[in-house]
Amino acid sequence: MAKSRKSVFFCQNCGHEESKWLGQCPACGEWNSFVEERIDTGITKGTTVSARAVRESVREAAVVPLTDVSADDEARCRTGIGELDRVLGGGIVPGSLVLVGGDPGIGKSTLLLQVCQQMAEMKKILYISGEESQSQIKLRANRMGKFSPNLLLLCETNLETIQGVIEKEKPELVIIDSIQTMYSEEVSSAPGSVSQVRESTNVFMQLAKGLCISIFIVGHVTKEGTVAGPRVLEHMVDTVLYFEGDRHASYRILRAVKNRFGSTNEIGVFEMRQDGLTEVENPSEYMLSGKPENASGSVVACSMEGTRPILIEIQALVCRSNFGMPRRTAAGTDYNRVNLLMAVLEKRLGMALSNCDAYINIAGGIRMNEPAIDLGIVLAIASSFRNRPIDEKTIVFGEVGLSGEVRAVSMPEQRVAEAKKLGFETCILPEVSLKMVKGIQGIKLIGVKNIGDAVGIF
């Protein structure tokens, strides 16, 4: 039976479909994102299918009460990498489809190969690469150590061939590197196009759910940092993980932006070494290494990432501007938030910051946007402006409002406990949070109502 084809236009950013080319996508607002693709419209005239035949071909669906469904968390498979298990919510859920994105060279393939190294001792794993040859993968694996014979390699991009191998071998874990290289012969467009990516992801989703196989998919990212291809790709998978960090720096941050089986607030911290990625079990100590002593404009603040408190060093440099318009720069935090806090300092404390350049930086290259670091930014700016150093054994946290008040933040007990564990002697926190941390001994607690009380301590 012949099939007819027609040309349609897809948005490369969100997958929106139109019958003609448009300059701007009406769904996501992206400009110049439509590409033309030819698709099959189905069986041509002269073929009819009776409604009875359709009803007979449909399988009987099994309907069960929700109360009879069992969900056992012990069914999760540990990867042997604690930071990855934390981000996944405790391990890999059988039958899940996980998308891993990140900049080129940041360590996506390295991390997944390390997962294969840890899990291949007990499980059958199939590593499918569409970008590297078997010898190239072997060269990368030699740097990591020994691998089990349970790890199978397949260098193929044809979707039908890959589907046949998975159904034949029935592995417990499959790695697809990457989804943009896969193509189906039934789709006429080029590999990496919207239609190919959507079709390939749909096939892998059916394999994962039908055979109860956990599948990891590597996805390329655009220059904006989002996964390349249609937005529907992120909706189809169960979990979306992003690798963050500068590829030239040693640390990497793995963050979950979607997780149907766990929290999306957890992060995993890794350090890139010659033999692969190494877990950073104490990120606070790692971020504070090299902190200067008796330097103005430097303060340690505490931010929460999920259930993990992370201590970071906030640096500020405030100096007189030589031009009519002061320059403001923020690295690692929200630029607009810094401008807001500087306006609060000028209005509530009378600091003449309108003719000063201000440079704010979170040391270590990490990015934090939690409101709890507001008080740290305020004290760092005030310290640099007055040229008065803050005691290096002091830690601060609290949200700052437009009236200059210091508001409560979540989980103050965990923040103070982490500061005490790392040897800090004084903690400046919102006064309303004092009653929640009175049981912690060995660290001096100072509660403040507003930024005037906090700045007046130094």
Overview of the structural elements:
26% of the residues lie in helices and 27% in strands. The strands form four sheets. Strands 6-5-7-8-4-9-10-11-12 form a nine-stranded mixed sheet. A seven-stranded mixed sheet has the order 15-16-14-13-17-20-21. Residues 43-49 have low confidence and may be disordered. α5 runs parallel beside α6 and α9 crosses α10 (374-386). The protein has helices at 51-57, 82-88, 108-119, 134-142, 159-169, 194-211, 232-236, 283-288, 335-349, 374-386, 412-421, 451-456; strands spanning 3-11, 17-18, 34-43, 97-102, 125-129, 151-155, 173-177, 214-219, 239-244, 251-259, 267-273, 276-279, 298-305, 308-320, 328-331, 356-362, 394-396, 399-400, 406-407, 426-430, 444-448. The protein folds into three domains: 3-48, no CATH class; 76-281, Rossmann fold (3-Layer(aba) Sandwich), CATH 3.40.50; 286-456, Ribosomal Protein S5, domain 2. By secondary structure, the chain is α/β, with parallel strands linked by helices. The chain starts with a strand and ends with a helix. It has twelve helices and 21 strands. The protein is globular.
